[in-house]
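Researcher: I'm preparing a figure for a lab meeting and need a structural model of a single chain. I don't have an experimental structure, so a prediction will have to do for now. The sequence is pasted below. Please return the structure as tokens so I can convert it later.
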Amino acid sequence: MKRLADKVALITGAGRGIGAAIAFAFAREGAAVVLAELDIETARQTAEQIKAQTGGRALAVQTDVTQSASVQHAVSEAEHAFGALDVLVNNAGINVFCDPLTMTDDDWRRCFAVDLDGVWNGCRAVLPGMVERGAGSIVNIASTHAFKIIPGCFPYPVAKHGVIGLTRALGIEYAPRNVRVNAIAPGYIETQLTHNWWNEQADPAAAKQATLDLQPMKRIGRPEEVAMTAVFLASDEAPFINATCITVDGGRSALYHD
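Model: Understood. Here is the structure written out token by token.
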């Protein structure tokens, strides 16, 4: 029996990176997946790859997580195509790293609109149906920035701290209705965003090596390693895990000093 057989899942920001890996993993485990993505062409290509490689059901829906109406539209499209949603993964996010005193108001609003408001928009769109049915799992992709601070990354960690607070508050609020809300905090994961950051440095190869040297396992994580944690939280194997966060960082956040 596949671990997510007959479940319907919506994943935001699922066109590439961690979101795409989660969509692939869910499909392999039997879920019908809806890729809610701003870049619709990327999402369509990924959806077609999922169907071809897994034989599963996949649908791409253009979605701007900063707009509640757009997220609600994605939920409606998912329900029309596959039925009631069992799982939501709030994965869409952006990096906004600024100096606090030179950051613009637009930088602040852009960060929170995607990284925190976008998570709430997803939760608000699916919770009524999940509460009515008395079942559901929401998985929010946070970050180790939610509890560790790296200078120069403001205000991104502020938003990610908010994601953990939102996860805990909603998890407790709806626990009596059997709706679980959890988070995953990835550390360094080999996504395009990570490669982009390395490539922006004066010496990309040295920047990459410096990152690897910081890791207890001397490598960074793969998107698939985050995806399998999401599969677990979304499945019926985790019925008593709620309002918490699982860290996927190879032990980096447990390290006292380098």
